[in-house]
C-alpha cells in the first residue's frame, strides 16, 4: 500500500493515483496529457464536483526536474488530502483542481535507478549526451537567458522550442484549457521560494504583478503559520536568476493569471540537504504547502 512519507517509484505513484480515481468516480477522473520519449504516460487527476462539469481550474504540476523528489511527493500528498476528506467539498464544487504529479517520467525513473542527480528528460542528443532541460524548452523567449546550446549541459534548451514530447504534453494541455485555468503552480526544489514571472529577464514584470505579489504574500503567511517555515516571495529572475523557456513564463504568456514556481524545502542556507530532502520531512513539507496552496486556491477563485 502507498505510503505518503516515503519516496516512491513512478509505477507506485501512478498506481496510487489510478486507485484514487477508481475509488472516487463521482469527483475524480484520471487523464493522460501525453507520453514521454520512452512512451510512459504523463498522467493527471481532475478533482471536482460534479466530475463532468467544466469549472475554473487550479492546475498544479510537479516533477519537471527529475531529481527534485520532494515535488511529486508533495503533489501526491495534496492529491490524497483533497480526495480523502470532506473538508474540501465546497471548494471542489466551485473549482476543479488538476494535478499532474510527475511530468518527467523517464528522468524520474533514471533517478530511481541510481542516477540520483539527473535533472533533464532522456532524449538522445548530439555529442552522445542525453536529455533536454524541459524547463528551458517552452516557446516563450526561448533561449533568451539562463540556458545552454550544448547538449551535454544540465540546462540544455534542446534543438528547438517545444522539441520534447514532455514539453508538448504540458503545452497542449495548457493551450487547450487556458480559458479555464486561473492559477498554475509548478512544484520544484529547492530553496523555499515562491516566485512569480517574468523569469526570462530581471526587472521585467507582467502588468498585474501586484496581484501576484499579494497572493504570494498570503500564501507565504499561511505557510509560516503552520510551523514557522519562511518562504521568500520574489520575482524569479530578480530573486534567483533569469532563465527563459520555463513552464511558468509560458503559462503566464497564455494569459493565466496566478502563476508561480514554488521551490520546496530545504532552504538555500540549509547546508545539510539539497535535492536529498530526507523522507521524514515529506509530511511536514506537504502540510504547510497545502495550507499555502489551498489559500491560494480560495483567493484566486474568489476573485474570478
Ligand atoms: O531553474 C529552474 O528551472 C527553476 N529552479 S530549479 O532549481 N528547480 O531548477 C526556476 C525556474 C523559475 N522560472 C523562470 N526562470 N522562468
Ligand atoms: Zn526544478
Automatic annotation (TrEMBL):
<feature type="active site" description="Proton donor/acceptor">
    <location>
        <position position="263"/>
    </location>
</feature>
<feature type="domain" description="Peptidase M14">
    <location>
        <begin position="6"/>
        <end position="300"/>
    </location>
</feature>
<protein>
    <recommendedName>
        <fullName>Carboxypeptidase B</fullName>
    </recommendedName>
</protein>
<comment type="similarity">
    <text>Belongs to the peptidase M14 family.</text>
</comment>
<comment type="similarity">
    <text>Belongs to the phospholipase D family.</text>
</comment>
Amino acid at each position: 500500500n502507498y505510503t505518503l512519507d516515503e519516496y516512491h517509484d513512478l509505477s507506485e505513484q501512478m498506481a496510487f493515483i489510478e486507485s484514487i480515481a477508481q475509488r472516487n468516480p463521482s469527483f475524480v477522473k484520471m487523464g493522460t496529457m501525453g507520453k514521454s520519449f520512452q512512451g510512459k504516460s504523463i498522467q493527471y487527476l481532475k478533482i471536482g464536483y460534479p466530475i463532468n462539469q467544466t469549472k475554473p481550474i487550479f492546475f498544479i504540476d510537479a516533477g519537471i526536474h527529475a531529481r527534485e523528489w520532494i515535488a511529486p511527493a508533495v503533489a501526491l500528498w495534496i492529491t490524497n488530502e483533497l480526495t480523502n476528506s470532506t473538508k474540501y467539498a465546497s471548494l471542489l464544487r466551485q473549482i476543479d483542481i488538476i494535478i499532474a504529479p510527475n511530468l518527467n517520467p523517464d528522468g524520474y525513473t533514471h533517478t530511481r535507478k541510481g542516477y540520483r542527480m539527473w535533472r533533464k528528460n532522456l532524449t538522445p542528443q548530439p555529442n552522445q549526451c542525453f536529455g533536454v532541460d524541459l524547463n528551458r524548452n517552452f516557446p516563450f523567449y526561448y533561449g533568451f537567458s539562463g540556458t545552454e546550446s550544448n547538449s551535454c549541459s544540465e540546462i540544455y534548451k534542446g534543438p528547438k522550442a517545444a522539441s520534447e514530447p514532455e514539453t508538448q504534453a504540458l503545452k497542449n494541455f495548457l493551450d487547450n484549457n487556458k480559458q479555464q485555468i486561473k492559477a498554475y503552480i509548478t512544484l520544484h526544489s529547492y530553496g523555499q521560494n515562491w516566485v512569480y514571472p517574468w523569469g526570462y529577464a530581471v526587472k521585467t514584470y507582467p502588468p498585474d504583478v501586484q496581484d501576484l505579489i499579494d497572493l504570494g504574500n498570503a500564501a507565504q503567511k499561511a505557510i509560516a503559520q503552520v510551523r514557522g517555515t519562511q518562504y521568500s516571495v520574489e520575482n524569479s529572475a530578480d530573486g534567483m536568476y533569469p532563465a527563459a523557456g520555463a513552464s511558468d513564463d509560458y503559462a503566464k504568456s497564455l494569459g493565466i493569471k496566478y502563476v508561480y514556481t514554488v521551490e520546496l524545502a530545504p532552504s538555500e542556507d540549509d547546508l545539510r540537504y539539497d535535492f536529498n530532502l530526507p523522507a521524514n520531512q515529506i509530511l511536514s513539507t506537504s502540510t504547510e504547502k497545502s495550507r499555502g496552496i489551498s489559500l491560494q486556491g480560495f483567493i484566486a477563485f474568489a476573485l474570478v
